[in-house]
Automatic annotation (TrEMBL):
High-level lineage: Bacteria, Pseudomonadati, Bacteroidota, Cytophagia, Cytophagales
Similarity remark: Belongs to the glycosyl hydrolase 39 family.
Record key words, sorted: Glycosidase, Hydrolase
Keyword set includes Phosphoprotein: no
Listed name of the protein: Xylan 1,4-beta-xylosidase
InterPro entries (alphabetical): GH, GH39_cat, Glyco_hydro_39, Glycosyl_Hydrolase_39
Pfam families tied to this protein: Glyco_hydro_39 (PF01229)
Domain of life the protein comes from: Bacteria
Length: 562
């Protein structure tokens, strides 16, 4: 059998096995594993959340264990409110550690008990804290009353910005707090361990999270960076975690901060500039409801990312610093459930997983196009303790059961080595989606990687609109495979596979599932293959895999040489 006849035979055999009609034209995707395009850097292995006290609770510890297990590298974790005053009782968009109080004479009292409990939970799992230095302790706040907020999803978002968001009344006391925290961390975990962390200042200081001016933030940064480096000269310190660089006010804040880093007078030392080991900003999409259906806006998120990269690239002395997108999500408020925000109804099902697959692939492309050093992109989603099942929060699991989106990260965990060249299926690339989002034909494309013994190809069928659509026939041709046979495992996320939400709905959407139902849901929440591993023929280094991919579905083809 010659090569051409063989390929035709394979195509029709596989087409028949997945139910192709001879009148359908498959979406053709090409992968060449001999053409490496860059390292498969695990920019996805970064997660964060508002409520730090969930970290050591039952479902929090379970989810962190799962995140650590799915990643071939240590997972980085970022949490808010690590210096907030309070007794550690969690609530939506609230957390506290009581790390700093003052006695009757105004002398500092440090208590690391709750922070240690949080960081111990990470370290026990081989994870790395992104140690967020904030927010302002009550005793140091220039505007301490009111301090504790009692926000709920139906309230105004601005209700959360209370006394913790203000500058310190004493910058030297703040600096000493930071110094003592870093020194304590070195004493508890060792210098080598703490050197591997990322210390950062605050969160989104260009909006309500910071009630001071831009210059006051810069002053706080100078005192903070100086304290971190005095405590541990080899520590990594960064910022400023602004949100939305495509927004003029945010871009101005970021540029003002970077100008200061390069040439400003340091408030703490009097010298020129300030230490900066990595640069952070946030990027968010903006879904809305259109004609009764949710319409995503991936383009907005990519524009934020691209503008942030563009700004960083404009500073020659800073261009190669690592960039961490400190929050990188389809929209802005993880704790805003779909009960009050119907545009967030995408979060329980496969829209969230397909969006995640398609958007992360374009983050690699944007970084390459701008020539910047993208280290990580934090998915700002975790879990919410003691909430109704599948309430529509932006979380990775509900009541200890994984949502479909978590399985995309399990897929990413199977992609190692180097990224390789992909010939696209439909006519989308990073620039098209950045400028127009995905509003015409679906985005059916792939991200591929290879190591010494295997290749992994992630294929998605994404569209901004959550409306029904037929499955799409797809063929993936892989070139460069050594030998004559390989093994294929086909993993899938859709309404039938790797989807606890669909199973829960078929149960009748129980809010008090039985132990047997919980076990079934936990199993359904894991990444599932479509059948058993199969042996596939390789002809002249090439093989073709054909299948049908539902709208908002994601496949991972794991090919191992035999």
């Amino acid at each position: 059998m010659n090569a051409i006849v063989f390929r035709i035979w394979v195509f029709f055999f596989l087409s028949a096995s997945v139910g192709y009609s001879q009148t359908e034209t498959p979406i053709a995707i090409g992968v060449d594993i001999t053409k490496k395009t860059g390292p498969m850097r695990p920019i996805w292995a970064w997660f964060g959340y508002d409520e730090p006290n969930y970290t050591y609770m039952k479902d929090g510890k379970k989810l962190l264990s799962e995140l650590a297990k799915l990643s071939p590298v240590p997972v980085n974790v970022r949490a808010h409110s690590l210096l907030v005053t309070g007794d550690g009782t969690p609530a939506l968009k609230w957390g506290s550690t009581n790390a700093y109080t003052e006695d009757a004479a105004g002398k500092p009292v440090y208590d690391w008990t709750i922070i240690d409990k949080i960081f111990d939970t990470y370290i026990e799992r081989g994870m790395k804290p992104i140690a967020q230095i904030g927010f302002m302790p009550e005793a140091l706040s220039t505007h301490p009353t009111p301090y504790r907020h009692n926000w709920s999803p139906g309230n105004q978002y601005n209700d959360i910005y209370t006394g913790w968001a203000y500058p310190p009344k004493d910058y030297k006391k703040w600096s000493e707090l930071v110094y003592q925290w870093v020194r304590h961390s070195v004493s508890r975990y060792g210098q080598k361990e703490v050197e591997s962390w990322y210390w950062e200042l605050w969160n989104e200081p260009n909006i309500g999270y910071w009630k001071g001016t831009t210059e006051e933030y810069i002053k706080l940064y100078d005192y903070t960076a100086d304290a971190v480096r005095r405590a541990l000269p080899t520590a990594k310190i960064g910022g400023p975690e602004v949100t939305g660089p495509a927004w003029d006010k945010s871009a101005t804040f970021l540029k003002t901060f970077l100008d200061h880093i390069v040439s400003g007078k340091n408030y703490a030392t009097g010298q020129t500039g300030a230490p900066l080991d990595f640069i952070t900003f946030h990027a968010k999409g903006e879904p809305k409801v259109v004609n009764g259906a949710v319409q995503m806006n991936m383009g907005k998120q990519l524009r934020d990312i691209d503008e942030g990269f563009k700004i960083v690239a404009s500073y020659p002395s800073l261009k190669q610093l690592p960039i961490i997108i400190g929050e990188s999500d389809p929209e802005g408020c993880a704790a805003c459930s779909e009960d009050f925000h119907p545009q967030n109804a995408y979060r329980n099902g496969t829209m969230y997983s397909s969006y995640t697959a398609a958007s992360f692939a374009r983050k690699y492309d944007l970084a390459t196009a701008r020539g910047v050093n993208l280290l990580g992109a934090v998915t700002w989603a975790f879990e919410f303790e003691d909430q109704p099942w599948f309430r529509g929060f932006r979380d990775l699991a509900t009541n200890g059961v994984d949502k479909p989106v978590l399985n995309v990260f399990r897929m990413f965990g199977l992609m190692t080595g180097n990224r390789v060249a992909v010939t696209p299926g439909t006519a989308y690339d990073y620039a098209t989606i950045r400028d127009k989002s995905v509003r015409a034909e679906p985005d059916i494309n792939a991200l591929a990687s290879t190591d010494a013994r295997s290749a992994a190809i992630m294929v998605w069928n994404y569209h901004d609109d959550t409306v029904p659509a037929p499955d799409s026939p797809v063929t993936v041709t892989i070139n460069g495979i050594p030998g004559r046979r390989a093994q294929l495992v086909h993993y899938r996320i859709d309404n039938q596979f790797s989807n606890a939400y669909e199973v829960w709905k078929k149960m009748g959407s129980p809010q008090k599932p039985t132990p047997a139902q919980v076990t079934e849901l936990e199993k359904a929440g894991q990444l599932q293959p479509m059948g058993n591993p199969t042996s596939i023929a390789v002809e002249n280094g090439r093989t073709t895999v054909s299948f049908r991919l539902p709208r908002q579905g994601v496949s991972l083809l794991k090919v191992t040489w035999l």
